[in-house]
Amino acid sequence: MPYVTPSHPAPAVRTGWPRGGGGRLRRLVAALAAAVTLATGAALVAPATEARAAVPRAAAALERVTNFGANPGALTMYVHRPAALPANAPVVVALHGCTQNAQLYADNSGLSTFADRHGFLVVYAETTTANNANKCFNWFQTGDNRRGQGEAASIRQMVAHATSAYGTDPARAQVTGLSAGGAMTSVLLAAYPEVFTAGAVVAGIPYGCGVDVISAFGCMSPGVDRTPAAWAQAVRDAHPGYAGPWPRVAIWHGDNDPTVVPRNADELRDQWTAVHGLGQTPDRTSTLAPNNTRRSEYVTAGGRTAVEVNRVPGIGHGTPVAPGTGPQQCGATGTQHFIASICSSYWITRFFGLDGTVTEPPTEPPVDPPTEPAACWTASNYEHVRAGRATTTGGYAYAKGSGQNLGLYNTFVTHTLKETPPGHYTIATGSCP
Known about the structure:
Elements (H helix, E strand, L loop, with lengths): L23 H14 L25 E3 L10 E5 L10 E5 L6 H8 L1 H8 L2 E6 L23 H17 L6 E6 L1 H12 L4 E7 L10 H8 L7 H11 L9 E7 L8 H13 L8 E5 L4 E7 L5 E8 L6 E3 L16 E3 L3 H8 L23 E6 H6 L3 E4 L2 E4 L5 E4 L5 E6 L5 E3 L6
Parallel strand pairs: 3-4, 3-5, 5-6, 6-7, 7-10, 11-12
Antiparallel strand pairs: 1-2, 2-4, 8-9, 9-10, 13-17, 14-15, 15-16, 17-18
Helix pairs in contact: 7-8
């Protein structure tokens, strides 16, 4: 799979070109923007760190849907419909990453497996090279990431069409996506909070971070550090006057993601906990089998998880999958950016409440499970900032969470940082195993 990794600042390009008609000018400008910069989404696809053998797997059955609306974003709609789709079924919108397409995402992510098992419709939205030369959703373009405009409006029309054509329940619509698709998931949750009850952002970006090509590169790496209040205001500004209820949000991110750095998981957490009026210290922490993915949950007064962060150890940029036929297995790894680890689609389906389980709010305050050993990293201040474990201000690096001064922001000053609780780092030189 081709990819682009920026090594120099991208030249400024004109954004927000006309969306109607798909004419020659639009295709030329779109191709230029994306080819020169990957239109940031570039990056929302990183080089593979290892070769993986193809895993044979039957292709997911997709139906192409036409005439689903005015389609101002010029997207293509596909659906995966289980053989026995019940009336008033939920619908999940799935958004692929850069250079991918709907079929590839359906074949590898594992979502269709759970749609068949639990009886919900999956809408696979697909962008084209006419929109972006690398087939990235334009999450950073103002013409596509605003309510009622461009690609965001097209996806909203797909959800409405699913209700009229397939009888899905408009009160049970969710959205998830990888990379540029994850960043567009953030757009949809902010722009259409009355449409989507929940979302899952995989290796994505907070809403309101990138407003053009150049700023989008900075969002991906080294990331942008804002206060929870500032992030939350960006969401509220996307739909002025909306007072809730707000979508629930699950965040999935690889600890070793070099393309969309792990800091983005922290900023997404800050954004959506603040939207829900919650603090940034988790109410519950746990680990998920089979690879000790670290989960942090942020719980409402009623006992429901409004935001969760899932930090997947040892993986880079991609969707975590676990090929196999077990109840918690899914997906395939024969294509780049689907990484053998844990079946994120199983847990996302569960977070959306689509697996048939009913979780009653606890009658007593939540109790944390036994504390897991603290995670430790030894690296230069530059790498700590790049990985999202530290921030930088005025030429100095500061540990994320504790705010401890790590010294000059460069590659020569090295510290060991300990993470406990998740997202809170302290200097632990000499005290970590």
